[in-house]
Amino acid sequence: MNEFEKLGLKPVILRAITQLGFTEPTEIQQKTIPYILKGKDVIGQSATGSGKTLAFGCGILEQVIPGKDYKH
Predict the structure, then answer these.
(1) Contacts of 7 (CB under 8 A, 6+ apart)
(2) Cα separations in angstroms, 49 against 28, 66, 67, 69, 70
(3) What pTM was computed for the model?
(4) N or C: which end of the chain has fewer CB within 10 A?
């Protein structure tokens, strides 16, 4: 089992993460993704290259609804 599955990400995002070769979330990802998926505000500090962008990017992608018009 891919460790990212335990974080509650959608299957399409899990497939993309797996295809990119990631199998185990970093500490910052483990600690932030569950909160981000719940819509909580998160401030995280971690070293460059530790996976912050993936953590926050997953949260953004989880909110996208295919076919929805996001224009305001």
Answers:
(1) 25, 29, 30, 33, 34, 37
(2) 11, 30, 33, 33, 31
(3) 0.82
(4) C
State mean pLDDT over 23-48: 94
Q: Which residues, 6+ apart, have CB-to-CB distance to 14 below 8 Å?
A: 2, 4, 5
Number of H helices, E strands in the chain: 3, 0
What is the chain's Cα-based Rg? Answer: 13
CB 36 within 8 A of CB 59: yes
Distance from the first to the final alpha carbon of the chain: 40
Residue type, 58: C
- pLDDT bin (cut points 50, 70, 90) of residue 67 is confident
Helices (H), 2-51: 11-19, 27-37
